[in-house]
Amino acid sequence: MASLGFGFSFDDLYDQAQLMRLDARFLAFLQEGDSSLEARLALARQSPSDMDPKATSNLMIELGPHLEDFLSNLFQIGPAVAELAQTHSALAPLYSVKRLFVQRRATKGVSTEQAEAIDGPALARTLAEKFGQPLNGAADELTFAQKVGAWLEDETAHAEDLVLAQSYAAWATLSSAGRLAHRGGVLFQVPHKVDPEHMIHLAQGDRGVVLPADRLRLREGFDLTDHGMDLTRALDQANYCIWCHNQGKDSCAKGLRDKAGPDGKAAYKRSHFGITLAGCPLDEKISEMNTLKSQGNPLAALAMVTVDNPTCAFTGHRICNDCMKSCIFQKQEPVDIPQVETRTLKDVLDLPFGFEIYGLLTRWNPLNLKRPYPKPPTGRRVLVVGLGPAGATLAHHLLNDGHTVVAIDGLKIEPLPARISGVDGLGRPVPFEPVDQIETLREKLSDRAMAGFGGVAEYGITVRWDKNFLKVARLLLERRRGFSMIGGVRFGGTVTLDQAFDLGFDHVALCMGAGKPTMLDLDNGLARGVRTASDFLMALQLTGAAKADTIANMQIRLPVVVIGGGLTAIDTATESLAYYPVQ
What we know:
It contains 23 helices and six strands. By secondary structure, the chain is mainly alpha-helical. The strands form two sheets. It has a four-stranded parallel β-sheet with strand order 5-4-3-6. Strands 1-2 form a two-stranded antiparallel sheet. β3, α17 and β4 form a beta-alpha-beta unit. α2 (35-46) crosses α3 (53-74).
């Protein structure tokens, strides 16, 4: 097994006493680097609830780079972390030039008609001569940003050059030909106003109204069709954020409120469609995450996420967007926060021992002022019923509070290799091999076995979301001491409430809402051929329909009518289209 720095082993990272020792070692590391910051951290830990929110945020952001250095040394991956940070820094000119030059100067006061009249290709050839290299659309936006950024440092000497660049930027941003040339880039993609009644722009096709061709993404089979944003685009969103935690207006996390009434209280605002804009249900520190990500501190950014959202493998892109709905930008496109969060996780997972770093941050995290490491064992035992996102997340918090957790699920949970999970076929802890490369955990979605763990995230949420995250979330729990899970157990049948207490459990937590059979209050709701979407999806997955070489045991009669437009309704429609007409 690979060794760690500071005299720790991978086994130590799963032991409560050793995590306390790790925390002490970090404090000593911080003391050596910034003694005043260490003193502020020690004071903040004494009464974190009494701290001003802005002071708390500033403290956590200042701690971030030190934590990043410590993790680099602990896992002995300094060069890989430095390379990732350098990638962030190398892209920085894109976002500074976009904000200061493209948005504030080049496009200000320029109409679409004026932009259309500009000869963009001719300007591109002229600028290419000045740059000493080609300027071919989106592929060379970083070159443009670097050169213009250098010119802005001495505007007097480069006044004529900047005029040319300004005209090109206006053409690239506002004209139809310019937008086409740069449709794959970020430098000239500026936020647009939002019309709630026309969110999707449609075109007239041979068969009626359709999506424009450049918006279509084919859905064939069960492999992942949406890989999310790359680093360039995610950083564009992180820099689009105005980091409004500094003004206490981070509505993405805390909700968007009206002015306070006579009683001093302010209600949440509602969207155009009447949706309450309460922000992130987890109060995730989103603005702070974006700050660290944009500063080139990817590990610290993930540490910021895991303070309030340790099981972020379950969230992010394609899962939730309450934060976007409450973004401070209400009249223009909001910051795509879920994309930034998912990119932040993926960037760390792709590092050597990236999974182990993520896992450690869910157990020990000095940015978490209230609970930097798990509490000592309490002797309490909790039965968690349901292993979907809610049950798994609750189990994580219960473990960190020092309780013993047994989790059950009605689905059969397929075992993982003991060398990965650290658990043998009888549920006994065994030595595990640390995950050096995340690729060893990944599988093609069309090849992976339905493992049963994840509830609605396993049998729903189709190929728009990478179900490899389920294995990541599962290992966060399965390796923990004081945790065990059993599949194929139905609460109320296999185990009753009275039996649970007779077995010595102190508490039973019901986390099975998404998978609960739904009885609709409709006439003939149980008529032949009528099924709820959740029941349909579960039955589809359990019969192996996602396998190209499998004949599903569940049969349906076409055509299918789907009533409703929620997540499970959309999944039902896409699953039906992907499987039945083809196979």
